Amino acid sequence: VQLQASGGGLVQAGGSLRLSCAASGRTFSTYTVGWFRQAPGKEREFVAAIRWRGGSTYYPDSVKARFTISGDNAKNTVYLQMNSLKPADTAVYYCAAGNRIILAQVMAPSAYDHWGQGTLVTVSS
Fold it and tell me: What b/e readout covers 65-88, taking b as 16+ CB neighbours within 10 angstroms?
């Protein structure tokens, strides 16, 4: 499966952005789709994930209640709605997909086999 991430940009603190992750090559079906981010000099960090079958979602405490992940079956696309953005959210955001990921591995980048190219989100203070 090929992933194309888009929607990044420059936004002021407190603003919102919606990222998109479009899949081609096959449907997500049994996949888990996740968003990760990486700021300069830092490790890749888990942001959100959704089970394509069933729709369960997962978030770390750092973004819970501010970010929402959702999926559109018809468009084979996953979205990440980001609200109340902070300068600390500045990073390159990547979407990723993995098949049959167990719950304990949902937040681990190594569990995901397919990665998009990344989209830059910059939040100014």
Answer: eebbbebeeeebbbbbebeebeee
Residue 108: left if φ>0, alpha if ψ -120 to 50, beta else—which one?
A: beta
Dist. CA 110–CA 51, nearest whole Å? 17
103 by Cβ neighbours in 10 Å (0-12 / 13-18 / 19+) ranks as: exposed
User: What are the 10-residue block averages of pLDDT along the chain, 125 residues in total?
Assistant: 95 98 82 96 97 93 96 93 97 95 95 96 97
